[in-house]
Amino acid sequence: MKLKPIALVAASLCLAALTAQAQPLVQAQQAAAPGMALVPVVDKANAAQSFKLGPLVIEAPWARATPGGARVAGGFMKITNTGKLADRLIGGTLPVAGGVEVHEMSVSGTVMKMRRLADGLEIKPGQSVELKPGGHHLMFMELRSGLKAGETIKGTLVFLRAGTVEVEYRVAPIGAQTRGGGHSHH
Description:
15% helix, single chain, alpha+beta, eleven-stranded mixed β-sheet, 2 domains
């Protein structure tokens, strides 16, 4: 992802502001308890997992929770190919689904179209693809049970060249636009 110069400036200013705000706290802590150090806390519930299969890195797989009776759900993640040859995501498995398909969503004029990518999704060498709402995604078909927010579901991804890798999907709330459950506002 390339940031425009204005975005880089904004990000730098935010980081500088946060660092400036934290500095008095660090100094006060060091004065009150010499030899002690602040330790960052990791929020394991929201920490993104990554999985590796040969040259492929799968980051932060997640799915949306489903309303009662839903027969399909969407799966999302980022896949990076660090290798020298292209590969293709061609499907996967999920214990609660009858099938896992690779889909593409697009908008043509005022019509939203979704279609299965019969040949899968190419991940070119040295590049990343992001499976996200409104774009490329996995469709979990013929659900036998719903997906509930907060749960983790194990599944697999199947690549044409690299083979099969086990992953874990974190289930975000219904309608989520990101793994953490936030909504995107443009």
